[in-house]
Batch of 2 targets.
Target 1
Amino acid sequence: MSTFSISYEFFPPNTEVGREKLRAVRAELATTAPEFFSVTYGAGGATQEKTFDAVAEIAATGSPVAPHLSCVGSTREQIGALLDRYRGLGVSRIVALRGDAPSGFGAGVVGEFRYASDLVSFIRGHSGNDLSIEVAAYPEFHPQARSPGDDLAAFAEKVRAGADRAITQYFYNADAYFRFRDDVLAAGIDVPIIPGIMPITNYAQLARFSDNCGAEIPRWIRSRLASMADDPAAIRAFGFEVVTDLCRRLVAGGAPGLHFYTLNQAEPSLAIVRALG
């Protein structure tokens, strides 16, 4: 199996209990020598300070860490100040996203950046080449894209604006990733595209996430999970098998890395990484 990088995503905890748990999770996942940890950013920047605190704590351990930045509701001045604070922590990687408007606000909550490509361009202009910029990609297409062609054009715009790499939305159909990667290359865009991996541990939660973000759960997986709904151990065992097989296919097909959406849990991602060797 070819060499590949591993990275993990966390969300910023709200409580001291959550912070203690995340410290333990990070320490456990650090044993796999990840390329970096990333920390998410709430709708409209709602968790900005919590994100900063989590990033600062991870940076202090010596682990590479990449904060998420979203442009919805943000000004250039705010983003510039935040970038300077992150660079002061030694951060060298940013995940730049358009982001979602906070709950209760309409589509008019834009701020000074309309698209993720605008944010990427600003970060590149503000920080030069000091920061590596990751952006989002959607193998099954962004739920708000009018067509696959429009989605590909939006992705190309982010790369032209200065993005170095992409991390995908999670998916369970390896062919969707390979098709997207081939379409990107055919369009003359050559950046590493890292598959986003969501371990399966809870069917109701996964179905809710997927319905909200447009990620498809193949019917055969959904049906099997629904039939196990009151057997958590069976769901975890089946989920481990499905996602580990997906990861093996992706790595064998040349995916340069795997980015795990951990939901601040260590064991589901750790088990898969260990199985991959």
Note: The longest helix spans residues 232-252.
Target 2
Amino acid sequence: MAIEEGAFKTRGIDLLWTDIPEGTGKMNALLENGKAELAIILTEGVVKSITESNPVKIVQEYIATPLQWGIHVAADSKYQTVRDLENTTVAISRFGSGSHLMSYVNAQNHGWETSSLNFEIIHTLDGAIEALKLGTADYFMWEHFTTKPVVDAGTFRRLADCPTPWPCFVIAATESFLEEHKEILRHILEVINLYTSEFKLIPSIDRTLSNKYGQRLEDVQEWLRITEWSQSQLSAETIENVQDYLFKLELISHKLEVDKLITSL
């Protein structure tokens, strides 16, 4: 909305937005390869990537509430409960993605042996639809509301939700962008924060989103109700919690000092 309304251009900033359907793993690769300077990205995914030497810093928390990860099977699947999915194959967009990391969180929640998780890389939601239909994967974890039209169409059946144990999205920047354009980044965040602080107050925003994304109005209203935007930096306690979780699940080999992961502008 800010781009469409020229809010960045009035400050002399030509900000280009690109959707990345492959998700967080692909975004991390784009940041690492210098093909993107900024990303709105899953917290756990970028933390893992930074511990693996991706030269990126978290510059702000973006969504302060957990992400609701739906656990989906094919509509005609024999699996009826999440417990039935132990020792089956989970579809993931790529290693290091949210769908990959959250499959470990879900496994731990149910007391499964995480070392025995099996994965099928499917890249996108369309890939997951195909994999579950063909039986090359048994379940797929993806954001509840994004996936709900697929559930409503009778393609997927959702067995349960698995919320992230932390605020779900952050804004991350490459270290090179921070070094060269810190003042520009301050302006970008000012614009974003102005829009997010007033987002829920926009008249008929629920209908606008419903029409734009082909979602049922009641689903958009529920999403707005449970989602809170942030205009501040991620807390040190949250960073420690994310690292503790990933380390315990053996998804990262070591933890970093907080200032290696976040920065203040």
Note: The longest helix spans residues 175-198.
